[in-house]
Write a structure and sequence with these properties.
The protein has about 80 residues and is mostly helical. It has helices at about 1-25, 45-55, 60-80.
């Protein structure tokens, strides 16, 4: 019985820590911004991609591939400019 109680407390602690870390990233800005704008870089493509993923229009693999493509295009444009 004590072992079961210890496991429940351990799992509850893990859940609490995960939620604290996850919410801490958003709480200081007041709103969720997955990619904060950076000077000289356009984040509209990333924002649109994030919205499509959040709505379930694309799956995780497609999201990650498109995100990588957008970031590499932005890096290439920044290196040229």
């Amino acid at each position: 019985m004590m072992m079961l109680l210890g496991m429940v407390i351990f799992v509850a602690l893990l859940v609490f820590l995960f939620r604290a870390v996850a919410w801490n990233g958003c709480a200081h800005r007041g709103v969720y911004q997955p990619h904060p704008p950076q000077p000289g870089r356009s984040s509209s493509g990333l924002h649109a991609l994030d919205e499509r993923y959040a709505r379930g229009e694309i799956n995780r693999e497609e999201y990650l591939q498109k995100k990588q493509d957008i970031l590499s295009d932005l890096a290439a444009a920044q290196n040229r400019g």
